Amino acid sequence: MNKLEAFGYITAQAARGEISFPTSVNAVLRLQIALDDPDCHVDEAIRLVLSEPQLAARTVALANTAAFGSSGGQVSNVRAAVLRIGYRRLRGLVAALLVRQFGHRIADPVLRAKAEQLWTHSAQVAALAQALARHVTRSDPDTALFAGIVHEVGGFYLLSRADEFPGLLDDDAENWGALCEDVVSVEVMRKLAIPANVAQAIGAMRDGVLNPEPHTLLDTLLLANRLAPVVSPLGEAELDAGLPAIDEATLQLLRVEAEETALALGEATLV
């Protein structure tokens, strides 16, 4: 099967809703569904977090960052961390774990390296989006963090399938963009029950137009994508114009806050 045939095959599968996830992704999806249940008691949430050691470690780490109120003192256990960050922020951590699980079935070292770079980029975009939402665009920081984590989920899915199709991702940015963002990403986000407002903002990134006074979730993602030190290995969304005027003191604050949050989300090595 040549590359164009592979593109067509995967696109047709996505259009029919035939998206298959690694077993590890499905396990985290079950965790997400349980935590999204409005009747989920805090003790059950803590038990679920403790059942995933990586999630437990990340929850405590994130609770101790400046962005999540470390001025109230360091926490050293999952119960205190969950109570500090709350369910909405915990959802972002579950999303981070879910995205990273796509690396489980990537065997090819070149593809795995791309997946690790993509995770580093995603973590940086998420952390910057949260900081930008708080200090610049005044949008919801928790939604911005979540959207940044999942904004490349279609790319992770295709990387997890690329072992089946040698050469699929070689130097074909135009076809990659159309495949990833117009078809596969939409279906993957639907399967993962990504909220509509987040999915719409992510879908608009490739041709996004930055508002003169950035204030929307899309503006926040576009700015975070531009400011992220590590670029996506799968091609970048383009802004129609330069960055808005952000003073140097604010930029420094954004970078410091975002670096701490990105580290708390987890290192590049995929599990």
TrEMBL record:
What's the name of the protein?
HDOD domain-containing protein
Organism encoding this protein:
Massilia phyllostachyos
Q: By its UniProt entry, which InterPro entries does this protein fall under?
A: HDOD (IPR013976), RNase_Y/CdgJ (IPR052340)
Q: Where do the HDOD domain residues begin and end?
A: 21-208
Q: Which residues cross the membrane?
A: none
Which Pfam families does this UniProt record tie to the protein? HDOD
Q: Which Gene3D superfamilies match?
A: Hypothetical protein af1432 (1.10.3210.10)
Q: Which domain of life is it from?
A: Bacteria
